[in-house]
Amino acid sequence: MTAAMPELAAPAGTRFDVEEVTRLEDLEAVRAEWSALCDRCPGLTPFQRPEWLIPWWRAFRPAEPWVVLLRRGGRLVGVAPFLFYENLSEGPGERTAAFLGGGVSDYMDVVLDPEIRGEGAEALFAVLAGRADRWQACDFEPLPADSPLLQAQAPLGWGAEAEPRDVCPVLTLPSRVEDLQQVVPTRQLSNLRKYRRKAEAMGGLRTEVADEDDWEEALEALIRLHEARWESQGQPGVLQGESLRAFHREVAAGFLARGALLLIALRLQGETIAALYGFQEGTTVTCYLQGFEPGWAKLSPGVMVVGAAVEEAVQRGARTIDFLRGKEDYKYSWGAKDRVTWRKRLRRA
Known about the structure:
- This protein is of the alpha+beta class.
- It folds into 2 domains: 3-166 and 342-347, Gcn5-related N-acetyltransferase (GNAT) (Aminopeptidase, 3-Layer(aba) Sandwich); 174-318, 3-Layer(aba) Sandwich (Aminopeptidase), CATH 3.40.630.
- It is 33% helix and 31% strand.
- The chain contains 10 helices and 15 strands.
- The protein has helices at residues 24-29, 31-39, 50-60, 117-130, 148-151, 186-202, 215-231, 242-257, 301-315, 329-333; strands at 3-4, 8-9, 15-21, 65-72, 75-87, 94-99, 111-112, 137-143, 159-172, 206-209, 261-268, 271-281, 284-292, 320-322, 337-347.
- It has a 15-stranded mixed β-sheet that branches.
- Strand 11 (261-268) and strand 12 form a beta hairpin.
- The longest helix has 17 residues, at 186-202.
């Protein structure tokens, strides 16, 4: 069960009830409240949702999870999905507080109700101070630029530093597919039309957006195509291991259930030659992973499946499409612009 901490005073004179969660079943018990809190938070990313972090915990079994819940008047107003680990890279046996979701999440952050963002972040620092026997340093990354942890002042006597961590190229979208030429370079749209004409001439070109009837088949195709693409380059890809595959199966099912899964399959002559996997959060669509059949490279199936995702995002009412971490050339060919993520490190005196 959750372990209740003594009530902590937030700096502005307000008060929160604070709970610690260290067992997966107790986090499952607040899933509905957590999801409702996420729905109240504009600018959230899929990687802070229970549909992402609960499967991560189940798949990878962190040794020392530590999720902090903030409540006010019984209502859940904050979730801080932390863990502790021994950071050997920063010194012998240094105990570090970080986020759940490491290794697979392009953004990581706390979730705080918009009404308490500032005081909530400072209250979380106070909670960390109250558990100072468990850590020597905090390493929070990759944080979005508007993270409340970046903006909050560290407690007196703590060392703090923030630095750019990575970039996530983002494309601003028009309200109509017909207006994509206003944001996407002419050459890229010309290439998209050219490759589609070539594929259509071969017969049977179809773009399918997966639903509850075929999402599992589409996800397995994505995994297979992703591996084939990387194997052709002598590299392992990022979906090695059954734990990681099980994680994405549970994630896909969870986001499908809330109507936020984007899973596109490009089929030619009855064969899936490309697939793309992502999510929608508010007016942003994220493109998390894609794969294509190397044998069809002459048709640029990657261009066609990303083009389908861009068009689908516009049709869903999205205003941005986030290509996530990494500076791959193809992202900029669509007109994406860099969005910086951050790393904040804290150290107790």
